[in-house]
Amino acid sequence: MSETRRGRRQGALSKLFVESSRTRRAFERMDELIENGWEEHFCRALLLLGPSRAGKTRIVNRFRTERSRPVEEGGKGWKIITVEVPSNCTLKSFATDVLTVLGDPDPEYGSEPDKTRRIAELVEKMEVDLIVIDEVQRLIDADTDKVKRTVANWLTAILNKRVCPLLLVGEKTAERVFDGSMHLQGRTLGQVPVDAYDWAEETDQKEFRAFLHMVEGQLGLPEKSGLATVDTALRIYAFSEGLLGQAVTLIGQAKTIAARKGRPCISHEILAQAVDELRIGRARSVMNPFRVASVKAVVPAGKAEPELEAPRKRRGRPKAVEQAA
């Protein structure tokens, strides 16, 4: 990749990070995991779960960057590595990927017990403080919808061997990996939810708008677009369903269109076109929030619509219908 293209990627809006109540809470829990996750005979794990594009990766990446800095530079000097659960994950392929990240010279070689032993030795040698396991929902087989117990049990064994604390990151469906496994649940410090922002919650609304304000500050356009105004922010929220990743994608596409048309800022017209260009398949028939007079309340991603209460059935035998005299 050329330096020009590399620099362009480094300036991507997706790298923006906004400190908020949820990021501070996640940082506190992850700090506690590293500092308190080494029990006498085993290690602890922590779950960081939420819908796709809710900002989990952004939180983990920032945490890793800040905490990995040397102490003299304001960091903790912690060694944190990240491993992604592969698609069609098997115990062999997952252990191989862990060894690869740890720099093992021949990660494919050896049996499962041998690979586990080498992982433990490398973690100790490298003084790793935390292993982040991303896309943990892939421990549920996409075809059979069953939990891959061999891999889940192996993670428990890693904790039992006191190799290293684990941060398990993924979608909320990953909760099923822990259902019915009291031993694995007993090794965790609980769960940190990273949900979509809820416009109906005042704090969430303020933080979502603060994020849009920061994004606009990074656009470098000649004129202000007013992305954080209540009306525009609500329309962006309606498209993104409260997911920061979706909001950034929309704004990034809108900036591209503005440059294409030689516009000095991002207008509702530009945002409407960006929505049209981004949507695929059935989503193209969904209401475009920038082509309507107003936007009503939107349910955030991952939150079910409230169900109407079904009428209660009367118990006992129905009363006889009186016949007309």
Topology diagram in text:
Blueprint lengths: L2 H8 L10 H16 L8 E5 L6 H13 L11 E5 L6 H11 L10 H15 L3 E5 L14 H12 L5 E5 L11 H4 L2 E6 L8 H16 L12 H11 L3 H18 L6 H11 L47
Parallel strand pairs: 1-4, 1-5, 2-3, 3-4
Structure description:
This protein is of the alpha/beta class and 325 residues long. It folds into two domains: 10-193, P-loop containing nucleotide triphosphate hydrolases (Rossmann fold), CATH 3.40.50; 202-285, Helicase, Ruva Protein, domain 3 (Orthogonal Bundle). It contains eleven helices and five strands, in the order H-H-E-H-E-H-H-E-H-E-H-E-H-H-H-H. Strands 2-3-4-1-5 form a five-stranded parallel beta sheet, sandwiched between helices. The termini are far apart.
Provide a brief overview of the structure.
This protein is an alpha/beta fold and 325 residues long.
